[in-house]
């Protein structure tokens, strides 16, 4: 299987080359060989197929995985009597004098369901709901190159592309509302400030109080602030560095934080739009920035994650609390694209591997959530909406793209969503409609709106909802990966063993 792994690695590199801002002649030649390599890989997998292969896991690897599953199953079975005894003891301790008497003269109080039982019931209900979900897909035509970023504001979606444009779309009608042209380089990132901060800026520029703004960053070293109602660029900030990521931090008067392709973080005051701090934070491009309350999280191409405290009471608003390198996160490598999504003490990471990494940013403890059943998967996006963790997955062998849903806070697998010819998903935005239905937008080679249909809708949706039996269990495990991800298929165990207690977090959970 050595040649199979080499071909998988080459295909992974080619897929990542295709989403770069620009390609050299040598890189273009490599990309042109993708079809040939994929055909050769399919032939090899066919030759190795048979009773000893299960979805790319063959021979000793299959036996090892079976033994692991059997061992964990035996452990779970062995634990059941102890759990049963513990529950009975807990119920016995809940009895008090003066309660109602049963037919045998014993006194009891009604026993409320335990927190564990309530969580299980909630999970089962959520799983059943998503198994019946229907979506309609609509493609938004307009960009001429890869869509790199997208955000949602009310019924609008704003997308940025390598074609240097920012476009505003009216989702209910799936039409382009505005084309915001002004950048001279590819657009790499977008951010939408909260409404109250938009009101403050609107007063500065003497605009309507209800005006909404969006920020865009580009390889042309500029951050532009756009008024959505008119499409006017009200301010352009020159950063002296190609902007690879940005984030609005609603702390105090508010700050814009930008990350550069050289690893620098820069902080800009929202009230004055002046630079108030520059920090050489990373050794490589800052590929992701996310805020959570008074905290800012930054991630870079080399696989490093930094946690910062943001305060408007200091001359320099950012103060670094923690830094975890690639030896801890398990990220970095050929793909060079790390995306993060924080939740309390945990940070969910996607970095082009088949799993979603979960970092406890206080302790540096890493766990791993399987997002693909073999090492041929690429996780590009990780995001959260209330009650859900969402991970995109792209199979480098067959070109199939999938969205996997996990229930929060347990990180238990719910369902997988896919559609025919769904392209690789490089960015994701989500929100709820007034009726409580989901609307999502995914970007990559195409910009696609996912609109959840009501349960009473009779026709079949455009999305296939399925459950992957290989992701059935809560697949959290200690993370010590080899270079080629040979151990990517994880050992099933209960998520509750690795879940952080709610009381351990001093920060209330903010979902981005």
Automatic annotation (TrEMBL):
Record region (Disordered): 88-125, 477-512
Compositional bias per record (Polar residues), positions renumbered to this chain: 501-512
Pfam family, one: WD40
Compositionally skewed regions (Basic and acidic residues) per UniProt: 88-107
Sorted UniProt keywords: Repeat, WD repeat
WD repeats: 140-179, 212-236
PANTHER family per record: NOVEL PROTEIN (PTHR22847:SF722), WD40 REPEAT PROTEIN (PTHR22847)
Protein name per the record: Vegetative incompatibility protein HET-E-1-like
Organism: Sinocyclocheilus grahami (Dianchi golden-line fish)
Organism lineage: Eukaryota, Metazoa, Chordata, Craniata, Vertebrata
